[in-house]
């Protein structure tokens, strides 16, 4: 993470100009969009589904609520939220990347999930919604790719209703040392090769591994959320801290 | 408690699949839509939450949001809850605590117990009418035969033990034997008394 006043920002391990990161991330996701779901399953051995389900169970979602799924990509969370809010509720699937949004929209429509889902191409740093609109906001495996994370957290705070909650599901720092070593080996040696094999794109997955290392750890993200105005911020380490779920409320 | 997610999801999938085999299910779900019940079993520690949605049930061991009905009890008490007459007694004995709407839990269990799945129909949709009919007939015949076999073997075993091997006595014989024994004991008493008198 870089000082917000500096002109450069991390893109994986590289430093790039701030205004460049967005298009570089877009390139990555344009390249992986079609194979995104299958790669998620292959890379995480299917565990990403469990992490996502855990997030939904923690969200406190009820019939009739309005939910914003930022960086919702191919719509895994949106699909489950849609079922739970029912026809009186609303789920907005937002993603900065049109290619990912298209894949998500096709997938959800094919599953018969229509009626209470909207699709919006939006930048998390500057969300195009009125203030205090949503009961729940989730961002799963997306915050890491945002150029200015603090600004994004503040933008989410603005569109969240008082009493609403934000859930950030993101890769984090594994806690047990043994797990950390095994995880590093897996990320830098196995992951890019798997990316090459399944999606034909090693570089994007190299970026994925690097961007995870550059993402703030559990406590840093917690303090960033508190700085953005969220209260009662807590986090749960999932699978030894490979992933962490941060929760914060707006009162 | 991340590990609970997978078994719960599997159970949820199974329950919802079974529920949707009954065409009446959507109407029943609609009546309870949005209602939430939590069950805390002392043996399990963490409470278990059931949410009714329009499309099925959602089961979770992680969800800690507010609910409409919270039941705190023990595993052993669960079968007794079927009869609502027991509820007051169990509450008094500190074996059961209900917060919120007690009827809701019963409505929810009724949702599952009222499930009426037309198995022959389900089977015929999957393997075709004729094979399904053959299978269902075979199953019914098998069940009837099993029942006859059970009754026959009970009868046969009784006959073998009583008549052939004479290991056990028939009921009439046993009563006769009891009566004879009684009479013999009375005779013996009489004889003893008689002997006593002679000696004196």
Automatic annotation (TrEMBL), chain A:
S-adenosyl-L-methionine binds at residues 74, 95, 123-124. The keyword Transferase applies. Pathway: Cofactor biosynthesis; ubiquinone biosynthesis; Quinol/quinone metabolism; menaquinone biosynthesis; menaquinol from 1,4-dihydroxy-2-naphthoate: step 2/2. Keywords: Menaquinone biosynthesis, Methyltransferase, S-adenosyl-L-methionine, Transferase, Ubiquinone, Ubiquinone biosynthesis. GO terms for molecular function: 2-methoxy-6-polyprenyl-1,4-benzoquinol methyltransferase activity; demethylmenaquinone methyltransferase activity. Its EC number is 2.1.1.163, 2.1.1.201. It catalyses: a 2-demethylmenaquinol + S-adenosyl-L-methionine = a menaquinol + S-adenosyl-L-homocysteine + H(+); a 2-methoxy-6-(all-trans-polyprenyl)benzene-1,4-diol + S-adenosyl-L-methionine = a 5-methoxy-2-methyl-3-(all-trans-polyprenyl)benzene-1,4-diol + S-adenosyl-L-homocysteine + H(+). It comes from the Bacteria. SUPFAM superfamilies: S-adenosyl-L-methionine-dependent methyltransferases. Pfam families: Ubie_methyltran. It is an enzyme of class 2 (transferase). GO terms for biological process: aerobic respiration; menaquinone biosynthetic process; methylation. Methyltransferase required for the conversion of demethylmenaquinol (DMKH2) to menaquinol (MKH2) and the conversion of 2-polyprenyl-6-methoxy-1,4-benzoquinol (DDMQH2) to 2-polyprenyl-3-methyl-6-methoxy-1,4-benzoquinol (DMQH2). Belongs to the class I-like SAM-binding methyltransferase superfamily. MenG/UbiE family. HAMAP family: MenG_UbiE_methyltr (MF_01813). This is Ubiquinone/menaquinone biosynthesis C-methyltransferase UbiE. It comes from Pseudidiomarina piscicola.
TrEMBL record, chain B:
The keyword Cytoplasm applies. Pfam families: SCP2. Pathway: Cofactor biosynthesis; ubiquinone biosynthesis. GO terms for biological process: ubiquinone biosynthetic process. Residues 167-194 form a coiled coil. Residues 16-112 form the SCP2 domain. InterPro entries: SCP2_sterol-bd_dom (IPR003033), SCP2_sterol-bd_dom_sf (IPR036527), UbiJ (IPR038989). SUPFAM superfamilies: SCP-like. Required for ubiquinone (coenzyme Q) biosynthesis. Binds hydrophobic ubiquinone biosynthetic intermediates via its SCP2 domain and is essential for the stability of the Ubi complex. May constitute a docking platform where Ubi enzymes assemble and access their SCP2-bound polyprenyl substrates. Belongs to the UbiJ family. This is Ubiquinone biosynthesis accessory factor UbiJ. It comes from Pseudidiomarina piscicola.
């Amino acid at each position: 993470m870089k000082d917000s006043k500096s002109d450069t920002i991390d893109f994986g391990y590289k430093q790039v100009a701030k205004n460049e990161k967005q298009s570089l991330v877009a390139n990555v996701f344009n390249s992986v969009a079609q194979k995104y779901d299958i790669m998620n399953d292959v890379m995480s051995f299917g565990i990403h589904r469990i992490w996502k389900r855990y997030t939904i169970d923690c969200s406190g979602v009820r019939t009739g609520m309005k939910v914003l799924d930022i960086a919702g990509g191919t719509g895994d969370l949106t699909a489950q939220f849609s079922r739970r809010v029912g026809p009186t509720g609303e789920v907005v699937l937002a993603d900065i990347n049109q290619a990912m949004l298209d894949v998500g929209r096709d997938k959800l429509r094919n599953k018969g999930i229509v009626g209470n889902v909207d699709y919006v191409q939006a930048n998390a740093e500057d969300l195009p919604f009125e203030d205090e609109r949503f009961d729940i906001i989730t961002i799963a495996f997306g915050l890491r790719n945002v150029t200015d994370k603090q600004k994004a957290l503040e933008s989410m705070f603005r569109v969240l209703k008082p009493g609403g909650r934000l859930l950030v599901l993101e890769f984090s720092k594994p806690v047990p040392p043994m797990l950390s070593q095994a995880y590093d080996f897996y990320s830098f040696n196995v992951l890019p090769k798997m990316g090459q094999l399944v999606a034909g794109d090693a570089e994007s997955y190299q970026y994925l591994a690097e961007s995870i290392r550059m993402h703030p750890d559990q406590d840093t993200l917690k303090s960033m959320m508190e700085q953005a105005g969220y209260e009662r911020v807590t986090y749960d380490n999932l699978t030894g801290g490979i992933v962490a779920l941060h929760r914060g409320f707006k009162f | 408690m991340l590990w609970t997610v997978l078994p719960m999801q599997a159970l949820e999938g199974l329950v919802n699949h079974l529920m949707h085999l009954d065409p009446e299910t959507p109407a029943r779900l609609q009546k309870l839509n949005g209602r939430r019940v939590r069950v805390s079993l002392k043996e399990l520690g963490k409470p278990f939450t059931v949410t009714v949605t329009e499309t099925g049930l959602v089961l979770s061991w992680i969800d800690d949001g507010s609910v409409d009905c919270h039941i705190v009890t023990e595993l052993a008490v669960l079968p007794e809850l079927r009869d609502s007459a027991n509820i007051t007694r169990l509450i008094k004995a500190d074996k059961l605590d209900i917060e919120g709407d007690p009827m809701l839990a019963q409505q929810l269990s009724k949702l599952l117990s009222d499930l009426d799945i037309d198995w022959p129909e389900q089977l015929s949709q999957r393997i075709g009418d004729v094979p399904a009919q053959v299978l269902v007939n075979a199953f019914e015949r098998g069940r009837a035969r099993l029942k006859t076999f059970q009754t026959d073997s009970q009868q046969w075993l009784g006959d073998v033990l009583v008549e052939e091997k004479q290991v056990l006595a028939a009921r009439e014989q046993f009563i006769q034997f009891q009566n004879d024994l009684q009479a013999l004991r009375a005779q013996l008493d009489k004889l003893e008394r008689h002997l006593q008198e002679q000696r004196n």
